[in-house]
Amino acid sequence: MGDKERYRLLLRHLPDAFAYYRIMTDEQGDVVDCEIVEVNPAFETMVGLEKEAYLGKRITEIYPAI
């Protein structure tokens, strides 16, 4: 089993909600948005949505008021 698979297994079985984000910055280095890259089942339960509803999307797409 490779490192990536171990990582995925660990995240899948964590009892705590976990989300991995890719931070997006502008030319000055200021954070302007982030993209949801991975979440675990506990996170899905916490937000009440399946991951397909937000994986690969920017936070500003999901929560425009942010």
Structure description:
- By secondary structure, the protein is α+β, with helices and mostly antiparallel strands.
- The chain has 3 helices and 2 strands.
- It has helices at residues 3-13, 41-47, 59-62, and strands at 19-25, 31-39.
- Strands 1-2 form a two-stranded antiparallel ribbon.
- The longest helix is centred in the N-terminal third of the chain and has 11 residues, at 3-13.
Quick structural overview:
This protein has 66 residues and is an alpha+beta fold. The protein has helices at residues 3-13, 41-47, 59-62; strands spanning 19-25, 31-39.
Describe the structure using short key phrases:
66 residues, alpha+beta, two-stranded antiparallel ribbon, globular
> Shape from CA axes?
globular
**Helix and strand composition category:** alpha+beta
Q: Main sheet, how many strands, which sense, barrel?
A: 2 strands, antiparallel
- Count of helical stretches: 3
Rounded Rg: 14 Å
Order of helices and strands: HEEHH
Q: pLDDT average, as an integer?
A: 90
What is the number of E strands?
2
Strand order of the largest sheet: 1-2
What proportion of the residues form beta strands (DSSP E)? 15-25%
Q: What's the helix and strand layout?
A:
Blueprint: H1 3-13, E1 19-25, E2 31-39, H2 41-47, H3 59-62
Antiparallel strand pairs: 1-2
